[in-house]
Amino acid sequence: MIACSRCHTGNGVNSVTGQFRRMMGDGKWDPAAIQAYLANMHDAQPFMPPFPGNENDLKLLGGYMLHLQANGAPIAGGQSAGVTVNPTYTAEALKAARSKEIAAKEITR
User: SUPFAM superfamilies, per this entry (predicted)?
Assistant: First the structure.
């Protein structure tokens, strides 16, 4: 779910449960259908990356989706706090580091 949580929440804004509810309705979801979709989602939705896990991960994630469907509570962390970016990886920090590298190379010439 870590790969998914960069763009999706479990229950909330752009939630995975909302996506599956639109595809499968409000009845009990079929874990095999969830697994099949996750394995091939990048073919149906070109903006989605390929599933990064293996067959066992698919099975576990399918079960987790059923858990999220049954339990509408938000997951603590990313859904309430948002995503924090390491300050050393901001565009400004990377530009500054690159400028220092260039300046250091020019000094040694």
Answer: Cytochrome c
68: number of Cβ within 10 Å: 20
Distance CA 58, CA 41 (A): 12
Which residues are paired to 9 by β-bridges? 15
Contact 8, 20 (CB under 8 A): no
Task: Using only the alpha carbons of the chain, give its radius of gyration.
Answer: 20
Q: 89 pLDDT band (50/70/90 cuts)?
A: low
Q: Please count the structural domains in the chain.
A: 1
40/14 Cα distance (integer angstroms): 19
Q: What is the pTM of this model?
A: 0.60
C-beta separation of 65 from 20 below 8 A:
yes
